[in-house]
Structure formats: C-alpha cells, structure tokens
Amino acid sequence: MTAPAVITGLGVASPNGLGKGAYWAATLGCQSGIGRITRFDPARYPARLAGEIDDFQAEEHLPPRLLPQTDRMTRLALVATDWALEDAGITPGSLPEFDMGVITASSSGGFEFGQRELQKLWSQGGQHVSAYQSFAWFYAVNSGQISIRNGMKGPSSVLVSDQAGGLDALAQARRQIRKGTPLIVSGSIDASICTWGWVAQITSGRLSTHLDPARAYLPFDRGAAGHVPGEGGAILVVEDEAAARRRNATVYGSIAGYGATFDPKPGRARAPGLRKAMELSLADARLDPGAIDVVFADAAAIPELDRIEAEAIGQVFGPRGVPVTAPKTMTGRLYSGAAPLDVAAALLSMRDGVIPPTANVVALADYGLDLVTAQPRRAPVRAAMILARGYGGFNSALVVRAPN
Amino acid sequence: MTNEDFTFDDLKRILLVSAGFDDSIPLDGSMLDADFAELGYDSVALLETWRRIELERRIAIDDSTAAGARTPRALLAIVNAHLPTVEGSASRGAGSTIAGATS
Questions:
Q1: Out of A64, A131, A132, closest to residue B21 by CB
Q2: What is the per-residue pLDDT across A119-163, written as a single tens digit (0 to 9) for each?
Q3: What is the pLDDT of residue B86?
Q4: Could you give the CA distance from residue A378 to residue A386 in angstroms, rounded to a whole number?
Q5: Which residues, including other chains, have CB under 8 Å from residue A176's CB and lie 6 or more apart?
Q6: DSSP 3-state assignment of A29?
Q7: Which of helix, strand or coil describes residue A47?
Q8: Would the ipTM clear 0.95, i.e. be above it?
Q9: Chain A, nearest residue to B41 by Cα
Q10: Bridge partners, A377 (sequence order)
C-alpha cells in the first residue's frame, strides 16, 4: 500500500474540554460536559439536556472579518483547525497551496445561522436576509472556510452521512493522500443547539428525555433510553507518512483500515451492516481481531441499536474479547464530530497507555461486553477500532495504529 | 436621518458590521480610493454591504450600478446620488416613495 496516512495534529472542541489537553484530562477524570441547555430555554421541549461548549468566545480567536459570515460550528472548526495545525507544527503559508486539502464531514450545516436568517426572511422580508446566508449554512462551509483561511487549494470536499460521516471524511482524506496530496485537514465539528436544530433532532425519536445529566445517556445500560446531543468534535491533520517523517513531525498514529456498509431496508431478513464494516476495516488494515486493543463504540443508547452493536463486537472479537469504551457518554453524541473526537481519544490512548472510561453506565451482562466503566484502565494500546453509525443506515469502522 | 448625506463614517460603520476590518488596513481617507478587492472585500462582502445600506437608507440600487463601484469613493457617490432630496420631490420617483414611508 503506497503512502500510508498518518495523523500529526489534533484540534479538539468538546463539551467537556476545549482544547486537546483539557478534553483529555476531563475524559480520563470522568468529567461530563452534559447539562441543561443554556443556549435557549428548553422548558417547552421534551428533551432538555445537551453537551454544550460553554467556554468558547469566537472573538478571542478569530479576526472580526470572519464573524459576520460564520455559524458557530464554523467558528469552532476554524479554531480547532488552528490548534491542529499548531499541534502538527504546520505553518500553512510555508507549504505549496495545492499540497494541502480539506475534507470534513457535516450532519446539519450551520443551523443557528440559518435559523436567524430564515426568521428574518419570514418576519421582515427577503431584504433583511444576510448575503452570507448564501453559504454560511451549507454542509460544505467548514471545508470552504478552512480552505480559504489557510490557503489550502488541494482536494477538498464534505462527507454527509450523519454520525458515520466523521469516519468517512478521514477515509476520504486517506484516499487523497494515497493519490499524492501530502496533507489533508480532516475530521469534523458539528453544532446545532438552537431551537430549529433541536426540533429537527427530536424528530429522530432517539433523544433522551431524562432530566438528570447522570442518567440521560446510558448506552449498553439497562436504563438506555436515547441519547443526549452535543456540539463539537475534532479536526485532525492527516499527512503522507513520508512527508511527515521528512519534517520530523510527531506522529500520533496511522489510519490503517476502513470499512463502510449500509444497513438493509427495515423488514428485510439481511443482517445489519455494522459487523461487515468492522470486518472490512480489519481486512483493510491486515490485522486479526486479536490485534485490536480497544473499540470505541458508536453507543447509540437505543436498546435495539445497542444490541446490534454488542452482537457485532461479540461476533468479531468473541465474548468479552476486547475492551470497549464510549467516552461520548461525557459529551453527548456530536453527530459528525463524534468519531473524529473518538479517533483523537484513541490516539491519546496509544500515547499514554490508558483507555478512557464510559461514564455512568453499568453494562447489561447480556451484551457480553468488556466495557471500561467508571475509571480509566491502564493498558498498552497499539491498535484501536472506532465505530460510527449514521441515522438512515450508515455504518463505518476505522482502525488506527500506533506509530512504529 | 433618511435624507442626510451618506458619509465616509457611515460607510465605515456599515462595513464593520457587514464584513469587519483587517487590522492591517488604516481606517482613514487613504482607503477612499483603494479598490475593494485590495481592502479585502470580496463580492459577497460587498453584496452584504449594499444590502445594509439599502435597508438603512430605504433606497434601491440595481445590481449593475452597485457592481460598478470599485472603491469606497465611488460607492459613496452612487449612494448619495440615489438619496431622496429633503423636499422629497415627485421627480425622485420610487426613492422618495420609499423614503416617504419612514417616520
């Protein structure tokens, strides 16, 4: 396989920690970022908890020029990109602009911006709608703004497959690196905690209506009854390994394998596609299941989806055959931002030899999972599998390996 | 205020909210004759700026006229030429009709 893709920079924006260090410390400390929504009054809605990032002031990080034209998710993505590039030791202006691409994922686009402008459209008229509405709410806007801000003119796109998109984007980044682009900014940030975004999410029927932050999002638990949404994610710098070595970059790990499947139509006899995606990712990585030291679960917290995931893990790895964790129990589900954040956590697990915990959960014995709960577990991590499922039947699995 | 001249200060104020400023650009008379592109304002930023001017002054300027303004000085000239007179004479047509609707 030519040009292995390695990850050299992490930029994290998570409800339980802004920045890589703050996120990782909170996650190992089992500190949750889930609470009652503050961005709007949630009293009229059945679901009232979210993982909000409450310490982000865009104007402290971005020039005034960008503020009128950006949704919250774009501001977070631009700042996370700055951090990821800094972490990687990359100064974008010093590299040829066509040697750098941007491939992110999105699940909803810039909902908060869109809501504000649509409200103006219907209450005041079309003249009152910002010209920036023409792009600020698009799925592709984060890729575009990251590209413009950093002068990156290489292959750029956006992947839209709900929560699975975060892994699909990283796989697409690897494809472009194999085709010859030395550097791709990838990963994803999602944020749509506004009333319009909220009612859209409620229609999935998958949101938890519990009011206690410690009991609201309990994947694989007897009390599983939906998820808590969150905002944020991670931006990752993905590089051609040879290029990274040439500049003596610190390598977190490599993207070793990837598999993606669709579920069959409801009612069909065919099995769900998650197991197949996992097997495809292992085959792509040329690894046996025994080489995987931890699985970062999708962790839907819908009993049927939990069962499907637990069964797939059991079929691939055997009963209690691999440590499983879901640190997203401390952030809520971040949609397309979730899996890149899990990839960042997996890479930090490798660096530090520790598996982060799943918060608040007592795993149902029936599932046969070795779920890491309550506190982190010391263990060498050489390879990790990250799972992500998107609403509508998307399944993706990614394998990352520690640097040699 | 509808009938007052549209000044350089008015333009700077609107540019600030519609598109922001780069720290490197001095906000003085020296920018009056600079090309908007040199000042860092792209076509969407200018569209947003024109939209806000039209709303604030209750005037309508057709897109091709607006697109012809390459500098702040040219933009000011176009806006002021479209402002209704204080007397609001009938010859001002649509402009005075819109302005006349303001309180």
A1: A64
A2: 999 999 999 999 999 999 999 999 999 999 999 999 999 999 999
A3: 60
A4: 19
A5: A101, A103, A154, A155, A184
A6: coil
A7: coil
A8: no
A9: A65
A10: A355
CA pair distance A6, A174, nearest whole angstrom: 9
Residue pair B35/B70 in contact (Cβ under 8 Å)? The answer is yes
DSSP H or E stretch at residue A259: strand A253-262
Contacts of A260 (CB under 8 A, 6+ apart): A164, A167, A168, A171, A277, A280, A394, A395, A396, A397
- pLDDT of the residue at B98: 39
**Positions of chain A with pLDDT under 50:** 1
**Contact between chains at B44 and A134 (C-beta distance less than 8 A):** yes
pLDDT of residue B90: 40
> Can you tell me the distance from the alpha carbon of B100 to that of B94, in angstroms, rounded to the nearest whole number?
10
Task: Write down the pTM of the prediction.
Answer: 0.93
| Cα four-point dihedral sign A78, A56, A87, A6 | negative
Question: Which DSSP letter does residue B25 get?
Answer: S
For residue A71, give both structure tokens: 């949704």
Residues of A in contact with B44 (CB under 8 A): 69, 131-132, 134-135
In angstroms, the CA A127 to CA B98 distance is 14
Q: Look at the block and give the residue holding tokens 């091709």.
A: B64
Render pLDDT for A70-116 as a digit per residue (tens, 0 to 9): 999 999 999 999 999 999 999 999 999 999 999 999 999 999 999 99
Q: Distance between CA atoms of A222 and A368, rounded to whole angstroms? A: 13
Give the tokens for residue A163: 């929560």
Within 13 A of B67's CA, how many CA atoms are on the CB side?
A: 5
For the segment A224-252, what is each residue's pLDDT rounded down to a tens digit? Answer: 999 999 999 999 999 999 999 999 999 99
DSSP H/E element including A168: helix A165-178
Say if residues A50 and A195 touch (Cβ distance below 8 Å).
no
Residue B29's pLDDT is what?
82
**Shortest alpha-carbon distance between residue B48 and chain A (Å):** 5
Residues of chain B under the 70 pLDDT cut: 1-3, 86-103
The β-bridge partners of A10 are A236
